[in-house]
């Protein structure tokens, strides 16, 4: 038998015929016409070289071969159904590592509640946090499969990337309590003290400097750091200033915040994954938690 020529629909019809031992009832069960069901029975007889259903007194009965086919036929059809539409694995039974690309902001305020929620709902899911090195790197990692989920700015994600807006963020000026710039804070006081900036690439010039230059102004960058992690501690122990995302402030101690004295563009954070992972139960569960925490 050449499997490439086998119509799997025939097996579905045969299963109903063997269950019902009656063409009309099998047709009704499958929502087929009686003639179509009879034609399928004829094709099954040719396929198996057996009558399969024989006429008796006012009824039809299964041949010995048909009887022997019932169990394996149901097993085959069940296997095909499971292959095409596998049953969902309960979350608490999933064992899977999930790679998440994100910066220390927003990791600062999502990792603890994320782990708490996973411990209760899916303790076998183990997040692996990967360093964020810009939107382009995050998108490339999603496309080539080296990360599973990314929290990032995504100006124009690729067609194969599914993204969800998490939040729109803005910057505030952060400094220690009692900082000399805090009294009657304004543009002049902001520019009078050195600034900390964060740059994963070690750059000391940012769009903020370009905006200042448009007004004929400049600032002194006193320290460049690769991430936000050390910024609050350094601010608390010095007269340095820093622009921080507003949602960082509740997680700092000994700092105060002021609105930026110049108009600065904020940023939008998105949660993204490759569309091929849309049916990944573990990924979708973690994504739902992250969205609930950040939206």
Automatic annotation (TrEMBL):
Gene Ontology MF: a single term: DNA binding
Pfam families given in the database record: HTH_1, LysR_substrate
Nuclease among keywords: no
InterPro entries documented for this protein: LysR-type_TF, LysR_HTH_N, LysR_subst-bd, WH-like_DNA-bd_sf, WH_DNA-bd_sf, YidZ_PBP2
Domain HTH lysR-type: 6-63
Keywords: DNA-binding, Transcription, Transcription regulation
Claim: Transcription regulation is one of the keywords in the record: yes
Family matches, as SUPFAM superfamilies: Periplasmic binding protein-like II, Winged helix' DNA-binding domain
Family of this protein: Belongs to the LysR transcriptional regulatory family.
Protein's recorded name: LysR family transcriptional regulator
Species per Swiss-Prot/TrEMBL record: Cedecea neteri
Species lineage: Bacteria, Pseudomonadati, Pseudomonadota, Gammaproteobacteria, Enterobacterales
